[in-house]
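so i finally got all the pieces together for this one. its two components total, 817 residues if u count the protein bits. some of the lines might not be protein, just check the labels. i wanna see the whole assembly predicted at once instead of chain by chain like last time, that was a mess tbh
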Amino acid sequence: MARNLTALRSQVELALTNRVAAPFNYRDRKIVETVSAGIPEIDALTGGLPRGGLTEICGPACSGRTSLLTSALASRTANAEVCALIDGQDAFDPYSAELEGVELKRLLWVRCKNMEHALRATDLLLQGGGFGMVALDLGDVPAKMMRYVPLNVWFRFRRAVEDTPTIFVVLEREANAKTCASLVLKMEAQTRSWVVTNSSASGDGNGTTAKVFQTHACLFEGSTIEVEMVRARGRKTAETSFLVRADGKGFHI
Amino acid sequence: MAFAAIFVPNFIVQAVLRAEASLRERALAIIQGVAPIWSGVAANEAAMKAGIQPGMTKSQVEQFCGIEIRHRSLGHEKSAHAALLDLGWSVSPRIEDTAVDTVVVDLTGLNSLLGPDEDIAAQILRCAVAVGLAVNVAVAPKIDVAILAARGFAGLTVIPEGAEAKRLGQLPVSVLSPSIEVLETLENWGIYTCEALAALPVLQLSERLGQEGVRLHELACGQSVRSLVLAEPEIHFEEGMELEDSVEELEPLSFLLARLLNQLCARLVTRSLAACAIRVRFELDPAFNVETQENEFSLRSDDCRRKPTPKIYDRVLTLPVAMRDSKMLLNLLRLHLQSDPPSAPILKIVLAADAARPRFSQGELYLPSSPDPEKLELTVARLASLVGDAHVGSPELMDTHRPDEFRMRRFVSTGDRPEIRRGRGNATAIRQDEVISQEPRELGKSANPRNAFRVFRPALRVSVELQMGCPTRVCVRGICGQVVAASGPWRSSGDWWREDGWQTDEWDLEIVFALSAGMRTDSVNRPQRESTLRASEHSGSERGVYRIFYDSIRQDWFLRGMYD
């Protein structure tokens, strides 16, 4: 048996001589540097956003995707890193971004008219290099249109940031990059909190109509978001889908 | 004390060759004048060997085979002279602009910096090649001796003190630039060399030729002493080219621009400067001038006498950092011209550079990397050509309460240290040495991040059903949703003294959009932002918090954006 295994191993090594050096040698997995996304709960779940990799943030509208993206931009710009945002639908709000902590003078904002421009602009920025973070916001592009983007586009993007310190984040409705993504997060809003004077009320997620409040003291407090880590290179994800909670009230934004 | 004279032999030809380097190996004749009376004014060695003589008419020159004919260009000569001055200033700040083809440099005090005089002269020769000129350099203790040696001897010449008369003796008398009458007289006497002239008695020479004879004798003996007349340093870099045929395509124009930029950058390098802006000026072909076409073909007598004025294309390419990479500058110029092309073919090109100190940056170990400014400028220019100038940059918030009011500012990579904030919205500058020890996470951000907002630009028109003054149902482009929670109205207004004043009542609404099974899925023909509201491809509902507002001036409801 052992003799057969040895012969088989020699045969494989001979066949791969000019293509792969030492195919049976153990190689240490490259340590991927990660950085804070700006939200401790997300950092605890994912270990941070990977440098030199593609991160997908997926979810329907109003699921907290933009908040996570803005938080990550704030974290990077505060670290004096130059960031770029390719805005596929011109949806970026600089006012809320500045309140979140994004240093706008370190943010290059590219306002695109359509997805083709957005993808070409992403190509230019990734090839140019030097950015701490490049974010591609296609959150409002219908999922059906996103499926028409060929896989080699994502592969090209991933190759462009590989071995660089650039964090590449894509915001979309559903994950499309498949194995090209180093980290895929799926987000879903669970509950929304409204404050009315000294009491609070929330709408449930079942679609039933809740009570309508109509006073000036009624304010939208925030949402509780569920984050599922669908894929993370180098980490097991089977059991990591859980409701990220903080202070007993959920991951709140 | 030593002086170096830099002389450009056959200056008129060299000025043309500097613009068209491909002609260096060809026989070249330069003509000047007004059509049809053209006459030859200069020729290179190959053309002279072929039999071309200055003064020949154009038709006579054309009879020779293999002769390239070019018109004399004062613009080229001006650029060549400017390059010659830059060559002198690259070595010493004390130079004399002796003639259009001659510059004298004071080498006093340079030996400890640049080495012996021979090395300095060799450096000048090398720099001259870089700026496109073939020069003679002569170093001598006296100014006029250096000038005469540069004019008389090719290449590099060094004349030590005491050997002036001996070295100059070999040169012909014509090198001394005598008047025509004096030259004829000397030739009649059989005086052809400076040595022969220097041997004549000065007293008798003055009786026959006057003060000019004394001056020539002094020059021939190498005893003329004078001071340097210093030239004021000019910080003006301009290269131009006049075209015989107009150019209307970008590719051949890029070729010409590349040549001019190479010359410009070479001159900047000799002066240790860089360009912070490039000024582009094209003279356009007036035949294609739309405004003057009527004048050209009009039968009215006064229009026939009026000449059409050529149109000018004037643009300035401002650079965020001073640079002198000709390839980078060419790429930026091409992108600029693609987005803003001239309206007619081009007859003349002039490029000028605004000079500035080049950028020096020293990297730090603890600073994050940032994009290279030159590459970033090129990337931003490419992005601008893709999406438009107004859609690339950094957002700058305006000091107003008007919603979504900002402007796009040109993006410049600052490359400064990270700032540490003590509290939200309350930036406090701290000492530099504290930066390294603090984690960026401690930036005053609260544990719960804020809701981010996504804006609809422009705002979507909606129809709203009200109940007791509160929105209960919202419809946008056929999609209707029920309001389950509402906050508002929040009134704001401003700019009432202007024509574009505003007054809005804003509401934050939690809306459930119910989608039935029979509803169409996203259609690519519709604007993509609308399809967000019907993005669910299956029957079900989509729930979210949106902001709508009632515009009191337009008297209509709009959807501003959503919390995401």
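Confidence is low (pLDDT under 50) at residues 292-301, 420-446, 517-538 of chain B.
DSSP finds 18 helices and 22 strands in chain B.
anyway lmk what u think
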